[in-house]
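Q: Got a minute? One more chain.
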Amino acid sequence: MKSPVVKRSIVIAGHKTSVSLEDAFWEALKEIASGRRLTLSDLVATIDSGRSQGNLSSAIRLFVLDHFRGAATQARAQAAGERLQVSSPPVA
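A: Always. Here it is, folded:
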């Protein structure tokens, strides 16, 4: 049985390192980098410099999770705001 975790090499601040990530996290990370107009290496370097503990692979997973949780929260808030605008009585 093939492991869903794949070891990938990446260069961060001029140093080659490897991270072990599932395909879904790797693809999400690439999507986030593209959306921010960053290289994958630059985004991973930012994640690496901001982590206080744990390994880089875990830090990347938590970053991706936090990114999409934040996006979901923002979408819910926007939807709630739109519902409030539609259902609010007119101001006299």
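A: Helices lie at 23-35, 40-50, 56-87.
Q: Perfect, thanks.
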